Amino acid sequence: MKNNRITHLFNIKYPIIQAGMVWCSGWRLASAVSNAGGLGLIGAGSMHPETLREHIQKCKAATDKPFGVNVPLMYPQIEEIMKIIIDERVPIVFTSAGNPKTWTSKLQAKGIIIAHVVSSSKFAIKCAEAGVDAVVAEGFEAGGHNGREETTTLTLIPQVRKAIDLPLIAAGGIASGEGMAAAFALGAEGVQVGTRFALTEESSASDEFKQKCISLNEGDTILSLKKVSPTRMIKNDFYRQVQELEDKGASADDLRLLLGRGRSKRGIFEGDLSEGELEIGQIASMIREIVSAETVVKEMVDDYNETVWRLKGITVF
Asked: With the C-alpha atoms ordered 7, 11, 13, 18, is the resulting torsion angle positive or negative?
């Protein structure tokens, strides 16, 4: 796209970014999206430091296009993770779940481009003050961890656009060219897509998880664990245990005890559809087949162009 700040900033063909999702976005998915003209992200949130290094090196071997790493700033070994990213000369980092001031200038000093994920215009302003290069505004339709504000993408994007002048990426509930066109109409210049890429051939999620997700109907996901960290997940046996505890007024510590360790790995990566934490976005109910990442990018671009062309013929008066 000509005159698009996102494609210019990341040196990519299409302003489509694959979200860095736990247990879904390894080097295969990231490299496939980058090779297709978008920006692939390796999700560091579910990787030990040396596992991340391996994925970065394999991604370099699989693509000569730009790619990045998504890093939740609450990661316990954050210093080690950032050192690996710098040592491996990763060109782009998307940060989330923390204060962007902590790492932005340090990474930029090494020539790394920084985008930060927010759930409100208030935090978008803090990103601008921190000096990030781009902002991802994510509505609560998104899968996985969400903002406490529960603001939808349709409401969030124009408010963030009004608050800041940085390159803006929309996220949450976007899985098609039509959704991309809607986000652009509201002021976004790129889209970050999670669920649609989580349910592709290259995603490292288990086949059991993928098949479950493409069978979902409207209303089959819900935002839960609000006392701990609001998380959108599929309604399954584990969710019902969470709901039962929450209905009884359970504390955050009680919920953390139930959550334990590795609950999302158990569900997404290992395919335990009953006791696993099955994180996916609301838009999953629109997806009915597993295709390649390249197909997703091509279909989004084609549908975007068709949508814009169709809208040109629509007048209100």
From this structure: negative
Buried b (16+ CB within 10 A) or exposed e, 34-51: bbbbbbbbbbbbbbebee
Retrieve residue 117's tokens.
């994920």
Please state the pTM of the whole predicted model: 0.95
Look up the domain containing 75 and give its range.
5-204
Residue 1: pLDDT above 70?
no
Residue 222 lies in a domain: no
d(CA 62, CA 57) in angstroms, rounded, equals 9
Beta strands (DSSP E) in the chain are 16-18, 40-43, 67-72, 92-96, 113-118, 134-138, 144-145, 168-171, 190-193, 221-224, 231-234
Secondary structure (3-state) at 234 = strand
At 57-105, the pLDDT tens digits run 999 999 999 999 999 998 888 999 999 999 999 999 999 988 999 999 9
Q: What are phi and psi of 12, to 5 degrees?
A: -120, 165
- Asked whether residue 220 is assigned to any structural domain, the reply reads no
Q: Which helix (H) or strand (E) holds 198?
A: helix 195-198
Q: What is the pLDDT of residues 169-188, one digit of tens each?
A: 999 999 999 999 999 999 99
The number of folded domains in the chain is 1
